[in-house]
Write a structure and sequence with these properties.
mainly beta, single chain, five-stranded antiparallel beta sheet, eight-stranded mixed beta sheet, 412 residues
Length: 412
């Protein structure tokens, strides 16, 4: 009982913490200020920030926060939703009325119009895919592995097609899809496709392709300003070591990338410009002593236009602040690496307030200043450590416990 009371008191304190400078629970660049921590979702793989509300999924629930006062997230409701531990619904999607969660073999459709009382209104058996994305204001849904679901009646979701058949040969390895403009969907796949679903959502067509000549595993993408921006932003997912313990030599594995979109409607091509990946180093130097994975979910800072600042959840590297120049070149401008971090996502609530979702810490609230920035961690810098992780870390790479063969972090 005493332990439960302590947990409740700690939780209440985290939810009502005043907006003032606090000691950083780890290491951060001078332009990052720690404000608060909500330790309730320590297994979350991402969230959705929309219209003053934050929708968070974990391995056991959906929670909705009122973030209209962005420095003080207020928990409004929680609904039990059993999911796969540690790999719960990533990149949960909603239009503020309909919310989609793929889990335990099914697609669950929630009515979240009343933030205090979310309701499960529809279920599609066998509709569970790694991520599920709203298309055309959530009247349709695209799954990461190809499913197209008709949601025009959200109480009766219906399987309507498969987008992987939109071109010969298929898209290769798949992880996510993103509606970058109404009815236009960018796939995070080995062969990156821009799909046009505006006229026939059940049978989209490929209208452009992203350059990925070295067949990197693509994790997620974002095309700012509803495709009006010059750059497509792409995150990669590849562990730096192979399943046999050897160091992965793939160039830019797990990197964050920029793609030039100029002339795409004419050429049908999106061309990679630059790649960035933080160097392994000591934690006090702002890095990680070893790596298990990659850049994860990211968002652009308000004010972005053909370049600007963004924040990336980067597992053991914590949260990295990156600046994209008008040329598409990438440089690091800040970091937040609390003790025990495994950052999964970063979301800008305002131009200055950043939310970080962490597999180990839950939700951190940060203030980002336009002040001093650190020097990039260069190869050979003092404190730099090898990228080879300890043996016990290599053994915990996903899939290896099931006897799968891996190459550079990806199952063969």
């Amino acid at each position: 009982m005493r332990r439960l009371l302590l947990v409740l008191l700690l939780t209440a304190g985290a939810l009502t913490l005043p907006a003032r400078a606090l000691p950083t629970p780890g290491f951060a660049s001078p332009n990052v200020e720690f404000l608060a921590n909500v330790p309730l979702h320590a297994d979350t793989a991402g969230a959705k920030l929309l219209g003053g509300w934050l929708y968070v999924t974990s391995s056991h629930e959906l929670s909705i926060y009122d973030v209209r006062n962005p420095e003080l997230p207020v928990l409004t409701s929680t609904v039990p939703v059993p999911q796969t531990p540690y790999f719960s619904e990533e990149d949960v999607d909603t239009n503020g009325k309909v919310l989609l969660i793929g889990t335990v073999g099914s697609l669950f459709v929630f009515d979240v119009s009343d933030k205090r009382l979310p309701k499960l209104v529809g279920t599609l058996a066998d509709g569970d895919e790694h991520t599920v994305t709203c298309v055309l204001d959530c009247t349709w849904a695209y799954g990461s592995y190809g499913e197209i679901v008709d949601l025009r009646d959200p109480t009766k979701p219906r399987l309507a097609g498969n987008w992987t058949t939109a071109a010969k040969g298929g898209p290769g390895a798949q992880h996510d899809v993103t509606e970058v403009a109404p009815g236009l969907v960018m796939t995070s796949t080995e062969k990156m496709w821009l799909l046009d679903a505006r006229r026939t959502p059940a049978k989209p067509t490929v209208v452009a392709r992203g350059d990925n000549k070295d067949a990197r595993f693509i994790h997620g993408n974002l095309w700012p300003r509803a495709m009006k921006d010059r750059f497509l932003l792409v995150g990669g997912e590849t562990a730096p070591t192979a399943g046999d313990g050897s160091v992965c030599s793939e160039p830019g594995s797990g990197a964050f990338m920029t793609y030039d979109t100029r002339g795409w409607a004419r050429s049908g091509k999106l061309t990679r410009v630059d790649s960035y990946r933080p160097a392994a180093s000591s934690v006090p130097a702002g890095g990680a002593a070893y790596e298990t994975f990659c850049s994860h979910w990211f968002t652009t800072r308000p004010g972005w236009k053909d370049g600007g600042q963004l924040a990336v959840g980067w597992y053991e590297h914590g949260t990295r602040l990156l600046q994209v120049a008008p040329t598409g070149k990438i440089r690091e401008t800040g970091y937040y690496t609390p003790v025990g971090t495994s950052s999964s996502a970063a979301y800008w609530a305002t131009k200055d307030i950043l939310y970080v979702l962490d597999y180990n810490r839950g939700l951190d609230v940060l203030r980002i200043h336009d002040g001093p920035v650190p020097s990039p961690i260069a190869a050979g810098a003092p404190g730099r450590l090898p990228t080879q992780p300890p043996v016990h870390t290599r053994l915990m790479l996903p899939g290896m416990l099931h006897g799968e063969k891996w190459r550079c972090g990806n199952p063969l």
